């Protein structure tokens, strides 16, 4: 191990900012981060051991205690759950004789849940040692269990288990056009970089991650900073449950994405760029490295790009299971090898980002669109969409529909059109923008896809009339409590309190004041949290409570109060120790006064 | 003409580079806080100092003062919500004041008093937390840690990095920089600022718990708005 | 007699210190007695409470009997008041919440020093312990809270006179203590 860590540190130039990447490799080799590795790394990277431990304990895919040689994780997205995930996981657990959340005694296999792995159009999905497994069913689980019991190395597993489909159902402006690598850069240099920035400005392109900040303005601010070092970061930490379009863009349109980053570098004057790829998309890593190599060989990356005097290169960084790293300043912290805790703002990343230098962070789709605009011009883009939301939006549609997959629409398209196209019938409602977005009911399907109406980073989850609103809210609320980074009080404590309160109502123990208490808690989390995660963590409750208040009230018992914990359960231990089971050894959940 | 901001209707001057918290303290206006300390870089995590700046919620300890800001601070709505946030801290940890040496000198408790907090409101987490009494002079009781990171920041300034916060979400914990993980094996010395900076009773100096009798303690006769301004005004001005 | 305010009091997992503090209002007890009649309380030795205006609960909820008692109070009292640190967050008995119940009972009845005939009591007459000591507001609805360990006599006096005068009870800064 000593030599392995030594080599790893050397490969990473003994730089502390590489810590997360180094830890990923250690985890992948040993299935945990051994104490010896922490001690050795602390010396090699010249950082306190506490920093290493705090990074390990922050990311879901890193562990201080050994996981199985086969680390199995099952995606716990609502869409997976709609496709029988719970029963399949139980089946898998029984088949391998390992409990969910545990490591089997012989150390061969461990099993746990994980947040949405971005395979909602081909779930139930999972990960084995970080690699995506799709379309899980009993037959495939039998196969997987056999392979594990036979200790087959992953390389010898049938490729079909790891097959990830693009499922592009409805290509539009961006997905239909084909671009030769280098075309956008040539167009930009020909037009002039300033003129190209103006072109992007005229196109009206706004950030595709969901917040919708004007791209040209962001690039302009960054370029204007009086600093000689700047960075371009592509945010491919696509963690919003129900979103998978960046996975497809990186699988089939990576050149255009990298070209968009290079274009941005040319305009703002950056020499280094990073693609921050969510750990769940490990399966794309080698392929993307190959494309970067191709681009270097083609003179589109590296020194003196296209002989225009531009020096720029891109590194790929992998995440390790933390939704919060999709927040741009948390992502930058993660790039620096730290826990992904959102920074205080101001300063914003465009003035002080990666290593304190001006940094542009944009979504995968934004870079893709920017390169397309550089080739085709502003008008090509701006002629579609609405006045405030120009161009198209690439959506990941999943849930109760006949054709889940990737859809590209002009902004201004109604939800009803989406539903018709994807083959959704008897629709109860649609979750627009994932758990952090909005739940809309069947009364609102004339609403439009647009920053000024329904903004979305790309997640569209359809629910039919057989679905239960509380299953959805329950799943999303647990997701946020699990993903809260824990930096600020309202989110750290509030999301866990919210989980308890939602569980209480969900499990039928709610009483008179419980919905009011729920709403009060939601407002606290929303109004006082440090970043977007906390500010939107209560949205699943708030947006459904607004639309279905009677459903919530209907869940409440007609009594004034019920305890928030299981009273009789709290006697379990004493009952067992005293070996009693008489009537006096039990408690009713509610007194006869209620 | 000097630049000004308005807090609860009072116009106060500020200098460029000051945060709202610094400008307010210099003008004798108290904004409740726990994770802020004038000697250290602001952290912005406890959220008690949330004020409404031109209609938008901001942390006063991190947000820069800018000319013409209209700020709400001491309003009923804000204080009601600050009370709830304090209650969150009380149910998250295990804060049993009658058994704590810090009682009476504890800022978390004093914030509760200041905000007229009479109960803990929420369900308690009863989280199992560790206690480290291994160090000859300093005791750490994680039951009372509120993750303000003041010890982390102070120990970094001491050049020792004894403390760090680890974990994610509700599972955070304080860890110590020693191979054994024990406080006694760290470089912590009782004279370090980090040993004295804790706003609660999570980090205590041994054998000093009752040198100051109950009834004669910091918050027995003055509320935290008075003591905080007395102590911090000078620091902010420096 | 009938126009007097009826008050019941009880100590659950507490030390009766809050009751002692109530008695510390000293000569004002006489003024109180003019306005208040005590129902179930250690002061009266009445075993079960009937319809009351105010129920004062000292102590947290540590066993099944506490739950039944608390429910009886909730059923019969118009206003239920959590009195003291133990009722509000478990207080000193709450220190056992850091130790698994198995270990607590083991230490007391099985493997502690000087134990003869080690066994965990199982008489049905004995209430079973809950896994934790719970604050009373987590078991029934509570209307008012009087913090302190114990709340000083003036807290009781201020609170009760406020209620008797029909004012919304409020404690000034110097009366709010958690210790």
Give me a quick take on this structure.
Chain A has 25 helices and 16 strands. Chain A is of the alpha/beta class.
Distance between the termini of chain C: 37 Å
Q: Describe the strand arrangement of the main beta sheet of chain A, using strand numbers.
A: 6-13-12-16-14-15
Task: Please identify the top-level CATH class of chain C.
Answer: Alpha Beta
Structural Rg of chain C: 18 Å
Description:
The complex is a heterotrimer of chains A (594), B (238) and C (179). With 594 residues, chain A is an alpha/beta fold. Chain A has five domains: 2-58, no CATH class; 70-163, Glutaredoxin, CATH 3.40.30; 170-382, 3-Layer(aba) Sandwich (Rossmann fold); 392-467, Ubiquitin-like (UB roll), CATH 3.10.20.600; 470-555, NADH-ubiquinone oxidoreductase 51kDa subunit, iron-sulphur binding domain (de novo design (two linked rop proteins), Up-down Bundle). In chain A, 43% of the residues lie in helices and 14% in strands. In chain A, strands 6-13-12-16-14-15 form a six-stranded mixed β-sheet. A five-stranded mixed β-sheet of chain A has the order 2-3-1-4-5, covered by helices on one side. Chain A has a five-stranded mixed β-sheet with strand order 9-10-8-7-11, with helices on both faces. The longest helix of chain A has 18 residues, at 489-506. Chain B has two domains: 4-74, Roll (Ubiquitin-like (UB roll)); 94-220, Alpha-Beta Plaits (2-Layer Sandwich), CATH 3.30.70.20. Helix content of chain B is 24%, strand content 15%. Chain B has helices spanning 20-26, 76-92, 107-114, 150-157, 218-221, 224-237; strands at 4-7, 10-13, 50-53, 56-59, 70-72, 131-132, 138-141, 163-166, 173-176, 203-205. In chain B, strands 2-1-5-3-4 form a five-stranded mixed β-sheet, with helices on one face. In chain B, strands 6-7-10 form a three-stranded antiparallel β-sheet, with no helix packed on it. Chain B starts with a strand and ends with a helix. Chain C has a five-stranded parallel β-sheet with strand order 2-1-3-5-7, with helices on both faces. Chain C has a two-stranded antiparallel ribbon with strand order 4-6. The chains are: A alpha/beta (594), B alpha+beta (238), C alpha/beta (179). Chains in contact: A-B, A-C, B-C. Chain A binds chain B through residues 39, 48-51, 53-54, 57-59, 322, 339, 344, 346, 481-490, 492-497, 500, 520, 524, 527-530, 564-565, and chain B through 42-48, 50, 57, 59, 62, 64, 81, 84-85, 88-89, 91-92, 122-123, 125, 146-147, 161, 163-172, 175-177, 179.
């Amino acid at each position: 191990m000593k030599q392995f860590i030594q080599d790893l540190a050397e490969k990473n130039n003994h730089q502390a900012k590489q810590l997360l990447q180094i830890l990923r490799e250690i985890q992948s080799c040993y299935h945990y981060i051994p104490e010896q590795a922490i001690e050795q790394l602390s010396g090699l990277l010249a950082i306190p051991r506490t920093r290493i431990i705090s990074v390990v304990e922050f990311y879901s895919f890193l562990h201080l205690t050994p996981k199985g040689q086969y680390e199995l994780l099952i995606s716990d997205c609502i869409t997976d759950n709609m496709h029988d995930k719970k029963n399949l996981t139980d089946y898998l657990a029984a088949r391998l004789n390992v409990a969910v959340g545990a490591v089997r005694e012989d150390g061969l296999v461990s099993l746990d849940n994980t947040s949405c792995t971005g395979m909602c159009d081909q779930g139930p999905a999972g990960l084995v040692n970080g690699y995506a497994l799709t379309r899980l069913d009993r037959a495939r689980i039998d196969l997987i269990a056999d392979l594990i019991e036979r200790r087959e190395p992953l390389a010898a597993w049938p490729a079909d288990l790891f097959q990830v489909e693009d499922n592009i159902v409805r290509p539009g402006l961006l997905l239909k056009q084909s671009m030769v690598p280098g075309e956008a850069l040539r167009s930009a240099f020909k037009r002039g970089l300033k003129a190209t920035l103006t072109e992007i400005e005229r196109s009206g392109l706004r950030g595709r991650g969901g917040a919708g900040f004007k791209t040209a303005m962001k690039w302009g601010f960054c370029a204007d900073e009086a600093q000689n070092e700047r960075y371009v970061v592509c945010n491919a930490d696509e963690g919003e449950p129900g979103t998978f379009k960046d996975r497809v863009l990186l699988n089939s349109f990576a050149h255009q994405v990298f070209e968009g980053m290079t274009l941005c570098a040319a305009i703002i004057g950056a020499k280094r760029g990073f693609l921050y790829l969510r750990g769940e998309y490990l399966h794309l890593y080698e392929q993307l490295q190959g494309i970067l190599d191709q681009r270097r060989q083609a003179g589109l990356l590296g020194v003196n790009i296209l002989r225009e005097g531009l020096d720029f290169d891109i590194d790929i960084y992998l995440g390790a299971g933390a939704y919060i790293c999709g927040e741009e300043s948390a992502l930058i912290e993660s790039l620096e090898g730290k826990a992904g805790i959102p920074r205080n703002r101001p300063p914003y990343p465009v003035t002080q980002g990666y290593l304190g230098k001006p940094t542009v962070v944009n979504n995968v789709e934004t870079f893709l669109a920017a390169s397309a605009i550089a080739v085709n011009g502003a008008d090509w883009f701006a002629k579609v969409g609405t006045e405030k939301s120009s161009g198209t939006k690439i959506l990941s549609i999943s849930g109760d529909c006949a054709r889940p997959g990737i859809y590209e629409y002009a902004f201004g398209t109604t939800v009803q059109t989406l539903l018709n196209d994807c083959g959704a019938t008897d629709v109860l409602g649609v979750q627009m923008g994932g758990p952090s977005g909005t739940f809309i009911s069947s009364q609102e399907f004339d609403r439009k896809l647009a920053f000024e109406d329904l903004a979305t980073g790309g997640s569209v989850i359809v629910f039919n009339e057989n679905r239960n609103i509380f299953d959805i809210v329950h799943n999303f609320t647990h997701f946020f409590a699990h993903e809260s980074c824990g930096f600020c009080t309202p989110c750290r404590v509030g999301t866990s309190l919210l989980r308890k309160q939602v569980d209480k109502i969900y499990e039928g123990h709610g009483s008179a004041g419980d919905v009011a208490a729920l709403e009060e808690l939601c407002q606290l989390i929303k109004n006082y949290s440090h970043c977007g995660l906390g500010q939107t963590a209560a949205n699943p409750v708030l947006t459904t409570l607004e639309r279905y208040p009677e459903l919530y009230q209907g869940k409440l018992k007609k009594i004034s109060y019920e305890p928030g914990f299981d009273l009789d359960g709290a006697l379990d231990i004493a009952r067992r120790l005293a070996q009693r089971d008489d009537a006096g050894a039990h408690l009713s959940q509610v007194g006869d006064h209620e | 003409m000097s630049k000004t901001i308005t807090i609860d209707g009072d116009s106060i001057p500020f200098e460029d580079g000051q945060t709202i918290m610094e400008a307010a303290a210099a003008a004798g206006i108290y904004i409740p806080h726990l994770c802020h300390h004038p000697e250290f870089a602001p952290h912005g995590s406890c959220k008690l100092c949330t004020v409404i700046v031109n209609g938008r919620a901001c942390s006063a300890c991190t947000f820069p003062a800018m000319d013409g800001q209209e700020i709400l601070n001491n309003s009923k709505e804000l204080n009601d919500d600050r009370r709830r946030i304090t209650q969150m801290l009380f149910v998250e940890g295990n804060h049993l004041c009658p058994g704590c040496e810090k009682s009476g000198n504890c800022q978390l408790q004093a914030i509760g008093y200041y905000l007229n907090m009479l109960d803990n409101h929420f369900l308690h987490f009863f989280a199992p937390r560790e206690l480290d009494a291994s160090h000859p002079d300093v005791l750490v009781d994680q039951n009372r840690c509120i993750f303000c990171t003041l010890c982390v920041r102070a120990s970094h300034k001491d050049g020792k990095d004894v403390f760090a916060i680890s974990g994610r979400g509700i599972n955070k914990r304080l860890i110590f920089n020693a191979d054994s993980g024990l406080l006694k094996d760290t470089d912590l010395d009782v004279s370090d600022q980090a040993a004295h900076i804790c706003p609660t009773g999570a980090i205590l100096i041994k054998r000093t718990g009752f040198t100051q009798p109950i009834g004669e303690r910091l918050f027995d006769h003055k509320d935290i708005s008075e003591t905080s301004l007395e102590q911090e005004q000078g620091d902010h001005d420096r | 007699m009938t126009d007097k305010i009826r008050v019941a009091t009880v100590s659950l997992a507490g030390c009766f210190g809050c009751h002692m503090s109530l008695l510390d209002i000293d000569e004002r007890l006489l003024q109180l007695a003019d306005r208040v009649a005590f129902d179930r309380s250690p002061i009266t030795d009445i075993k079960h409470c009937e319809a009351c205006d105010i129920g004062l609960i000292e102590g947290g909820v540590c066993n099944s009997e506490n739950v039944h008692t608390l429910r009886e109070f909730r059923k019969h009292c118009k206003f239920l008041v959590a009195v003291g640190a133990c009722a509000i967050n478990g207080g000193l008995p709450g220190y056992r919440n850091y130790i698994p119940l198995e270990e607590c009972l083991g230490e007391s009845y099985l493997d502690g020093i000087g134990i003869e005939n080690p066994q965990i009591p199982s008489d049905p007459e004995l209430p079973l312990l809950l896994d934790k000591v719970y604050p009373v507001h987590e078991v029934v609805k509570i209307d008012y809270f009087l913090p302190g360990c114990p709340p000083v006599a003036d807290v009781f006096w201020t609170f009760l006179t406020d209620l008797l005068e029909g004012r919304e009870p409020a404690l000034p800064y110097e009366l709010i203590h958690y210790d």
